[in-house]
């Protein structure tokens, strides 16, 4: 303050013909003394008279101070009533920003609101989520502590303990707080308190060797190693702290080095300071200095005046921490700038009514306050200063790191900055390589209750524990989390599904029975093989069409059955491949019609066998049904019913391709929706009815005599057919996607192959392997003299 006033007074063309002075009152950390000193300054008398101002005294431009918020509040209430400006360089409590209660209060230091935000941002920057907190047992500490706790919890962290401390606490209460710190596993502890309140606790922590903790100091805490006894300040090695932004004060160190009792004879502090600094005493008469030889080497040695401050400047003046010093420097310059603007006012351009200016010979305190509120200037170091509508200065903090060397050299190193005017996400800038942590480590301390949940997991709270203590639970099916410490997992859209790690959604696989699929390839090869086999049998029957066994098996009906079976094999290809509108409409309908033709042909063959045995008597009426019309009519009318069913199906509710998102979570089934399922089951039911009738007729006629009897072969073929399709129903209903289609194709191939094999393989065997049996005589039993009747 003295330096800033001296700097202003020695600046040419600044406050011409006006000299700034100062008067100092010591509050001794007492609210009563702070109030008394304030009233004395306002009244101008040692015997304070409230509301009175001694006119013979110099003009009181305003007050700088107090340091503690608890002392500043009563002062600011008095100053506000009388409209005297007050600028604090250290009081941070946010209550003072209320201009209804404190209309004349301003400050160069940011309010607690910004400091608390800065503390929470600093904790979050290092990823600390599990911290302890010590607050002073006063309004600033309690209010600030609760706000910091709330901000930390909003960022996903938590405060493991919050203990209060005060300089007036008994040692028993102090030791209780100490035990909480000692016993708790938390590695990072915030101290939101003035240094004077935490002094006893910190000294006790040092003497009881409570080490290994990383301390984080609020801007409220003044870093002053000289105030601690027993070298207890060593406990701060590796500590991080917030400090109000401070810049270099040009010429200030030279000013400090030049302090001397002879240079400032009227300064009441310098002699006492000199004696404390050099452990010596000034003689009453400073003109002649004598030294008592017996006192040499003792505390009572006399000061010579030749002692040098240069070697002790850093330790004496604590030049490592210039934060509050700089704020006081700014406060003095703010008053100086306000007074300069006041005296520089041009008539008719003033800020008051009718453009008037304040009269320096009769200036009012509210006029000075007006100029102060509207100040916006830049210091010599380039620091921009102004006051907002709440009387608060720009919120910028230095991040400092306390480093103590092995030689006990105490250093406060600037390692970063928190600027609330910066763009979002860039408020905190830190040079990590410059930080030395507790114990001399270069690694950031770990302060978490639970490790961060990786992507693909979410946090699950532990019952009865703080929010930052949790378990990591994998995301459920269909959900992802793409960041660490996710509170909830997000569902993937309908067309997407989580990857294996559940950290992102990927497009679902579109699944259908394709020709590239191994299952599709096997079915296609099988269908091709049995089709070729069918064609081969048809060729054999055509080549040997005039032989007895071909004629006896109703040649025309056999050709028709072979052709229909070949179409049955070929229709399986419609089921393989990309579902399209046309193929979906043809799949079941073509299959149903062709199969009904095949089964109708088998039924016709069975009925013809029965009629043939009934018509052995020349006078039998059944002989008229032995012509080609009977099997044709049977096949036509039996197939016609199926054709009608399928036609109505296509006209009213035709099958169509669709994306099935429900059957499988991880893939999309591209399939044919059968439309109205009633028609599908009617089609299958009718096929079953035809097969059942054929089976019954063939079964009843299986014991008819003679080699012409095909009933046994048809009975066995129908048994195979019915068994396949009865097994098909549960298999079809229990599968989804391409496997459902594969089951149907398999049933088509197996049932068709069963008919082909059971009915035609024995005949081909005789035709190709046993041609001697392929004669009418053998078939009617005459070859070996058999006289059996037909």
Question: What is the secondary structure topology, with strand pairs?
Answer:
Layout: H1 2-9, H2 31-43, E1 63-64, H3 69-82, E2 86-88, E3 105-107, H4 112-125, E4 130-136, H5 139-154, E5 158-165, H6 171-183, E6 188-192, H7 195-207, E7 214-217, E8 240-244, H8 252-257, H9 270-278, H10 313-317, H11 323-343, H12 365-373, E9 376-378, E10 384-386, E11 396-404, E12 410-419, E13 428-430, E14 457-461, E15 470-474, E16 479-480, E17 490-491, E18 496-498, E19 505-507, E20 509-511, H13 518-543, H14 548-552, H15 555-575, H16 581-614, H17 629-652, E21 656-660, E22 667-673, H18 677-700, H19 711-733, H20 738-769, H21 776-779
Parallel strand pairs: 1-2, 2-3, 4-5, 4-6, 6-7, 7-8, 20-22
Antiparallel strand pairs: 8-11, 9-10, 11-12, 12-13, 14-15, 16-17, 18-19, 21-22
Helix pairs in contact: 1-11, 2-3, 4-5, 6-7, 11-12, 13-15, 13-20, 15-16, 15-20, 16-17, 16-18, 17-18, 18-19, 19-20
Number of domains: 4
- The overall pLDDT average reads 84
Query: What is the molecular shape?
Result: rod-shaped
> What would CATH call the homologous superfamily of the largest domain?
Rhodopsin 7-helix transmembrane proteins
Number of helices, counting only DSSP H or I runs of 4 residues or more: 21
Query: Any guess at the CATH architecture of the largest domain?
Result: Up-down Bundle
In the CATH hierarchy, what is the class of the largest domain? Mainly Alpha
Q: Given the helix and strand composition, which structural class is it? A: alpha/beta
- Tell me the fraction of residues in β-strands, as a range: 5-15%
Oligomer: single chain
Low-confidence stretches: 286-299, 782-790
Measured distance between first and last alpha carbons: 139 Å
Overall strand count: 22
Largest sheet: 8 strands, mixed
